[in-house]
Amino acid sequence: MSSRTSTRRWIVSTAVAFCTVLIHGTLARAGQESPPAVVSRSSEDTLFVNCTENDKPERVLSPVAVSEDEKWSAYVEVYVQGNLGCLHTSRLWVAKGNSPYRVVYLIPPKRDSVENGMKILGWAPGSRMVLVQAEQWQYGSDAPDSQQILAIDSETGEVYEPPLDSLLQNRENKQCAFRITDAGFSSDKNVVILVRARLSTALEPEESEADVPIAKRCTKKEETWSFNYANGETKLLGSGEPLHVFRKFLPNPAK
Fold this sequence. Notes:
Strand content: 35-45%
Oligomer: single chain
Largest sheet: 7 strands, mixed
Shape: flat
């Protein structure tokens, strides 16, 4: 065997060995990177998932909400990336029967509100429509968060979102804010969403109600509003109006 052939074989075998070491090293390092921790919480907890910067990624799952006819099920997943500055991504998963779950609604981390969450309020009685409350806010900021109520058709993915800013209209120049306390449906056969909210005086960070002129202060009270998607009507109802919603939650086996 010539020295040239021997040298060529030595170069090839060395290159193969070097590539093998690189591949094994890469796989070993990849194996050391554990997947995001999976934590099951109550549906209330998936609305506000706490985050600390530099925390490892985490998937937080709500219990499984089952429809009244037991044909549909849904749960919320909040993926939190503390290592990237507390970015939240919230997903609503639904499934029919034993079919695989699919995402029907997603809230990404936005530039001005990187944190978000969702919770399932329940189902329209005898229906495939699931009712969800969502929140979005900015990490480390005193700016007010934004709230949403969403009724989502699990079959089609169609989203009904009441215009909640209607709650603050016609307040006679009062400085008002609201917080959602609950939501449901009316007994109407059409899609009529009822939203219950507590009103109070809107305040700037580090401002107290005493800093707001009396004429501008908002009367503290709870109101129930109706949003009718059949005719587009929005109206104030009596505070005792019943909220029709079916709630049944089971432990979440997802991993």
